[in-house]
Amino acid sequence: MEAPIKTPGPPSADAPYHEGRRRIKNRIGTTTDVSPIERLCADNGLRMTAQRRIVAKVLSTTHDHPDVDELYRRVRKIDPQIALSTIYRIVHVLCATGILEKHHFGSGRARLELTPTKHHDHLIDVRSGNVVEFRSDKIERLLSKIANRLGYRIVEHRLELYGVPLDGDRAVIIPNQVRTGAQ
């Protein structure tokens, strides 16, 4: 049975000092809360335009793996003037600097994810498109044994499982948590 483990999630509006945020002084000397993606942008020397800041805040509070069109819809709720081409440019820059990763889960659209700090795999619900992140030490050991048997050492891998819920449409999705399998 898989047991969820708590992983740090995106900051919430009611928790301004969440561990994912830090307060910094901006150019005029006032302090502001900064989302994890804004911090990564600053750490990578990216200039924080108003549009990048909005995209960073939206991505920092998402619990799923949106595609660019879904990201655009969410950003337009905050700034109706932002163009789709601007979102594409920002996503390109964030991917090029290693802040975001694109995943192609077979739907024809790249899905976005903050570049993970810890390895995890994905289970994609083929009916709903929901993506469940999970980690299983047992699978990791098995993959290492297979590679070793074939004369290799794994340096990186991606595992994507595609499935449907066992109990009809009632799959349990726990946002912001990586499920862990048999250890």
Task: Tell me about this structure.
There is one protein chain. The longest helix has 13 residues, at 84-96. This protein folds into two domains: 3-114, Arc Repressor Mutant, subunit A; 121-180, Dna Ligase, domain 1 (2-Layer Sandwich), CATH 3.30.1490.190. The model is unreliable at 1-31 (pLDDT under 50). Helix 2 (50-60) crosses helix 3 and helix 3 packs across helix 4 (84-96). It is globular. The termini are close together. It has helices spanning 36-43, 50-60, 68-78, 84-96, 137-149, and strands spanning 3-6, 22-25, 31-34, 100-104, 110-114, 121-125, 131-135, 160-163, 177-180. The protein has five helices and nine strands, in the order E-E-E-H-H-H-H-E-E-E-E-H-E-E. The strands form three sheets. The protein has a five-stranded mixed beta sheet with strand order 1-9-7-6-8. Helices cover 31% and strands 22% of the residues. The chain has 183 residues and is α/β, with parallel strands linked by helices.
